[in-house]
Design a protein that fits this description.
Blueprint: H1 8-24, H2 31-37, H3 42-46, H4 52-75, H5 82-99, H6 102-107, H7 110-113, H8 117-143, H9 153-173, H10 180-195
């Protein structure tokens, strides 16, 4: 599946759902409210998505495909050092969050996924994809002698991703008023200084 498989109307619905979650919380995401936001009838909305759950699955799928395409382009740069690749990946992610702040309310909201196996499985697949990409870069850096092998590539990746998640969470809690790019870059550079030889 690619993002071209989504219709323009489906993308419009998913964007409206994301904005509603960001503004009012998941409890206010109903087909009735969403149809009202878009000046559609509920029946018209149901022609594009069968349920609220399907909208959320579509949202995560759309973001995951977009992220995969962005990160894949960075990973293919064989002339770059591992540290530079990591900087580019996280710069791309942070810039994407700044450009689309409401998406963070969806992908970083445990409450949305906690009691829904289908959604939590999809979100877990997205996190695994990112974890595997980062871990492969860290492992490459370790094999080239650029990164320390004191911790496994997997453990190092967990520390990096967890730290970056905290930076994004602080940004969201500040009402997007802190400087996500600056703070995220500073944290990542500090982490890389700790693992670079």
């Amino acid at each position: 599946m690619t993002n071209k498989d989504f219709t323009e109307r489906q993308i419009e619905i998913m964007e409206a759902a994301t904005l509603r979650i960001d503004k009012f919380g998941i409890q206010e995401l109903t087909i009735k409210n969403l149809a009202s936001d878009l000046s559609l009838s509920e029946a018209a909305l149901y022609r594009h998505f069968k349920s609220k759950n399907e909208i959320l699955l579509g949202l995560i799928t759309f973001f995951m495909i977009e992220m995969k395409e962005r990160v894949s382009g960075i990973l293919t740069q064989n002339d770059k050092k591992s540290g530079e690749i990591l900087r580019q990946i996280f710069s791309s992610q942070l810039n994407n969050f700044v450009a689309n702040p409401s998406i963070c309310s969806v992908i970083f909201s445990e409450g949305i996924f906690q009691f829904n196996k289908e959604l939590s499985t999809k979100l877990n697949a997205m996190m695994d994809m990112m974890h595997n990409n980062i871990s492969s870069v860290v492992a490459k850096g370790q094999s080239e002698g650029v990164f320390s092998t004191l911790l496994s590539a997997d453990a190092t990746t967990t520390i990096i991703m967890g730290s970056m998640r905290m930076v994004v969470l602080k940004w969201k809690l500040s009402g997007n008023k802190s400087n996500l790019i600056k703070d995220g870059t500073s944290v990542l550079n500090g982490l890389l200084k700790m693992i670079e030889k």
